[in-house]
Structures are given as structure tokens and as C-alpha cells.
Amino acid sequence: xxxxxxxxxxxxxxxxxxxxxxxxxxxxxxxxxxxxxxxxxxxxxxxxxxxxxxxxxxxxxxxxxxxxxxxxxxxxxxxxxxxxxxxxxxxxxxxxxxxxxxxxxxxxxxxxxxxxxxxxxxxxxxxxxxxxxxxxxxxxxxxxxxxxxxxxxxxxxxxxxxxxxxxxxxxxxxxxxxxxxxxxxxxxxxxxxxxxxxxxxxxxxxxxxxxxxxxxxxxxxxxxxxxxxxxxxxxxxxxxxxxxxxxxxxxxxxxxxxxxxxxxxxxxxxxxxxxxxxxxxxxxxxxxxxxxxxxxxxxxxxxxxxxxxxxxxxxxxxxxxxxxxxxxxxxxxxxxxxxxxxxxxxxxxxxxxxxxxxxxxxxxxxxxxxxxxxxxxxxxxxxxxxxxxxxxxxxxxxxxxxxxxxxxxxxxxxxxxxxxxxxxxxxx
Length: 428
Fold this sequence. Notes:
Layout: H1 5-9, H2 18-30, H3 42-51, E1 72-82, E2 96-106, E3 114-116, H4 120-128, H5 130-133, E4 149-154, E5 163-169, H6 180-188, E6 192-196, E7 204-206, E8 212-214, H7 217-227, H8 230-257, H9 273-276, E9 277-287, H10 289-300, E10 304-310, H11 328-332, E11 338-343, H12 355-363, E12 368-373, H13 384-387, H14 397-404, H15 409-427
Parallel strand pairs: 1-4, 5-6, 5-9, 9-10, 10-11, 11-12
Antiparallel strand pairs: 1-2, 2-6, 3-4, 7-8
Protein name: Alpha/beta hydrolase
Pfam families: PAF-AH_p_II (PF03403)
GO molecular function: 1-alkyl-2-acetylglycerophosphocholine esterase activity
């Protein structure tokens, strides 16, 4: 068996339990159950999660590898409000609000505090949702992701110069910081990287006033199943919202580069940040649903010059790929450079495994390539590759391998960093 409904629509493996949750919620609402195949490894994972009751936090705080580029790294969080559209996840709200992080080449960074991988609110949400259903962490196990430090220094002055801008879109349910190894590496090599949280879709988004917007994806998907509107939900609410978020973030970055402060609270910005952005050179990459978002945003927005799709299907469909509900980018292709970077699994975005990925390769006139990383799994394209092997006290070897595969972590990360950095160096 290949993908669940949710996985086939937006991601290769993210939120593998979405269909099961939607089924249960729909049954409670009206006994309407979707008939969708589950990922073949899911029963084993679910069984483990029930048998293993590990409720204590991990005794070890995982460490992230130090970036190798010549630049120090700064970071700032921005609270952005788009008053031109209502929030489709929260209909009474007449505006859409986002949290993004800008990670950039910095100077005098040692004077500033290191940023956590996640805020406490995001960590709690990730533990409750994505950690369990995307990354095999046994239910009830708490990992303090907010104790893990990145190499970003909060609000450090930006380095002198103008740097290409790269957007990052996370997988379904993941948080914007869940590819910090690649993000920090890019920043250390001279890129400004902007990571975007899809509010109410991601596990948890913490705002400056302490509010945490928890994911509403499962309940809304359950309602769509009950109503028979799954495809519309995926087209207009999930991916359509993500693409519109991306466009709005680009508008906000233009304001930032023009010397304005787009932050909703107008919090002071790091010295020199606006002048560091070269918004004439914009790229994008994303994992799973974020990879889908990347190519579709490239198709719709001429400002994005190049992109990388990591393991994201390009089809709105349920169950196995049907070759009938391709996204616009899959139907028409791209005239811009792009890379499809895939894990070595049956759920990867490859021409052999996914017709939508074969279609975008066949229809594109821009420079493009498709590369598979041997011995990897879906989580290998995220921070799971480096963090999960350090959690052997709370995860079994089988659970870790289901996320990261069999290839040595150091080799996988070296290859990923080389491919991602090389692609943007060449095309921006």
C-alpha cells in the first residue's frame, strides 16, 4: 500500500494518521467513514505506540550540527497580518495572521542569545501532533524541543552586503523550524532564509502575546470527509492557503527591503536587515506538502526564480495516485529551474512512483533534475535525520529507522547540504 488520503493529496508521509483521525471524527459526527488505504507500516507503529508507555521526558537533549559556512547567523521572528483575506481555517476571523522567521548572515552574533529550535508553545504542539504521527515518537513521550538550541543568534545585526532570499515551507503538520539544519547551513553560506508557518495547519504556532494557534487540520479534514468535499478542501483551504501565504510573505519582504517594518507590533528589527535582502533573487524549498507548495508557488508567482521540492506529491487525490487530479504545476510544468529531491521510499516524489511528479518533469522547459538519496526515508529530509537517532532512550531502533532509513546521518546531511546549497548558488 502506498499513501493515505492526506499523504497523497499533500505529502508523501506527513501525518500518516490523518485519514484514521478523520474517519473517527466523521464517525462521531455522522458515521461517515472514508475508505482509504493506510500506510502499510502504520499498524506496526500504532501497536508500538499503544504498548510502549514512555511518558517521561527524554533524559538527553539532542544537539544540532554546527553550520560550516563562513557567516555567523542571526534570526528574528516576524508577526505578519494580511487584512485582505479571511482565515479559511478560522472563518470568523477577517484576516490571516502568520509567524515567520528570518534567518540571515550576521555579524557580532556571539553577543546575542541562541534561538531555540521551537518555542514552548510550538514544542507542545509538535509533541501532540507531528512528533507522534509524522516521526514515530511514541504517544505520551515528551521531547523538550524548546531546549534544543540552533546556531541562530536572536536579533544580531545583519552582515554587510545583499544576499539572495530563500523561502522554506514545512511538511503537513510540521513547524517552520523543522529543517533548521538546512536553513542554518544556507544562512551561514550567505542566504537570507525565511521560514513560514501555515497557521492552524501546523502543529502549533506561538504568537508574540503568548497565544498558541493549535492545528485545526484534523477536524476540518474530518468535516470535509463527512461532506464529501475532500478535494475542494485540499485545493482551496490547504494548498491554496499556503500559496497565498507565500505571496503575502513576499509582499512583506518587499516592505522590509524598502525600509519598512512589516511586523504587526512594529518590534525593532535587527540592524541592517532590510538592506541585506536581495529580493530580485528569490528561491524556495519545502518538504513534503511544503515541496508541493514550493512548485505551485513558483508556477503562480514570477518572483520565485528557482525551487526544490523534497518528497512532495503534486496531485490532489485519495489513495494511490490516480493520474486524474493533477495540480496546475503538474499539468503545465515550469519554465524555471527546479530540483526534485527524493527519499528512497515508495512514498517519494519520483517519476516511477508518482504520476504527478512524472508529469511535472515531462512538461517543464526550465532546467530541472530529479535526485534520490539512497538509504533514506521521508524524515531524512528534515531535522529528524539528525535528532531522532539521538532519542534512543525513548524510541526503538525500528521507530528511528522508519524516519531516517539506513544511510549514515553524516553522509545524508553532507549530500543534502551540498545539493541544496549548490542548487541555489547556481540558480539565484
